[in-house]
Amino acid sequence: MRVATDIGGTFTDLIYIDNEGNMGFDKAHSTPPNFENGIIDVIDKSGISFESIDMFFHGSTVVINTLTERKGAKVGLITTKGIRDVLEIARGNRPDLYNFKYEKPKPFVERYLRKEVEERMDYKGEVLQPLNKQDVIDIVDYFKQEKVEAIAVCLLHAYKNPIHEQEVVRIVQAIWPGIPVSASSEITKEWREYERTNTAVLNSYVKPILNTYINNLSNRLSDHHYDGIKYIMQSNGGVTTFESAKDYPINLVESGPVAGIYGAAVLGEMIGESNIIAFDIGGTTAKCSLINNGEVRVTTDYYIERSEKGAGYPIKAPVVDIVEIGNGGGSIAWIDELGSLKVGPQSAGSNPGPVCYGQGGEQPTTTDANLLVGRLSEKNFDYQVNKQPVNNAIKEVVADKFTTTTEEAALGIIEMANSNMLNALKLISVRKGYNPSEFTMIAFGGGGPMHAAELARNLGMKKVIVPFSASVFSAWGMLMTDIRHDYIQTYLQKLNRIEFNEINNLWNKMEQEALEQYTEENIQNERVIFNKFVDLRYEGQEHTVKVPITNDAWDANFIKNLKNKFHELHEQSYTFILPDAEVEIVNLHLTGFGQVEKHKLRKLEETGATLEETTLEYRNVYFRDQGWVEIPIHSRNLLDPSHVVMGPAIIEESTSSTLILDNQKAEIDAFGNIIIEIEVEKVYEQ
Amino acid sequence: MNNNSPFVNEVIKDSLLSIGDEMFAALARTSMSPIIYEVLDYACGLTDAQGNLVSQGNGVTSFIGMLSPMVKSVIADHKDDLYEGDIIIINDPYTGGGSHLSDVGLVMPIFSDGKIVAFSANKGHWTEVGGKDPGSFTNDATEIYQEGIQLPGVKLFEKGKLNKAVEKIISTNVRLPKLSIGDMWAQVAALRTGAKRFVELCNSYGSDTVTDVIDNLIKSSETYALKELALLPRGSFEAEDFIEGDPKKGGPYNIKVKVTITDDEFICDYRGSHPQVTNPVNCSYYGLVASVRVMFLAILRPKFNITEGLFKPLRIITDKQSIVSAERPAPVSMNFEARLGGAELIWKALAPSLPDRLSAGHLLSVCSVTLSGVHPDTNDDFLIVEPSVGGWGAGDNHDGQGGQFCMGDGETYNVPIEVAEIKYGVRVKEYSFRDDSSGAGEFIGGKGVVRSYEILSDKQHLSASYGRFSFKPWGMNGGNDGASSLIKVYRKDGEIVGPFGVSTRMELNKGDVAQLVTPSGGGYGDPKLRDKGKVKLDVKNEFFSEEEAEKLFDVRLNDD
Question: In what residue span(s) does the Acetophenone carboxylase-like C-terminal domain sit (chain A) (predicted)?
Answer without folding.
Answer: 501-671
